[in-house]
Design goal:
78% helix; 0% strand; Helix Hairpins; mainly alpha; 3 helices
């Protein structure tokens, strides 16, 4: 169990690092998805460890993956719309859309 938690922790902090340091909206979205996948791994591992015969963690993870897919589709649509308006997907240039 500890190996899965270590992998999940490394994935989560790699996602946090990418989210904080990147300026490209697609890189930020990928980092956010990495963090969500790390949380999903934790759901499955802790369900398997605490309740070995039940499947609540697996169903919750499937629900979280479906929500993450919908969130990604919406985020990519927003990024495409930003690119069409300002021809750049850099976070620093998004404030130009206010005016």
């Amino acid at each position: 169990m500890i190996y899965y938690v270590v992998v999940s922790t490394l994935m989560f902090f790699a996602g946090v690092y990418g989210f904080v340091t990147r300026h490209n909206l697609l890189a930020i979205l990928i980092s956010l998805e990495l963090m969500l996948n790390a949380v999903d791994i934790n759901f499955v591992v802790f369900n398997r460890y605490l309740f070995p015969g039940q499947l609540e963690g697996f169903f919750f993870t499937l629900f979280a993956v479906a929500i993450a897919a919908a969130e990604t589709a919406i985020a990519i649509a927003i990024i495409i719309n930003i690119y069409r308006n300002i021809r750049n997907i850099n976070v620093d240039n998004v404030d130009k859309m206010k005016y």
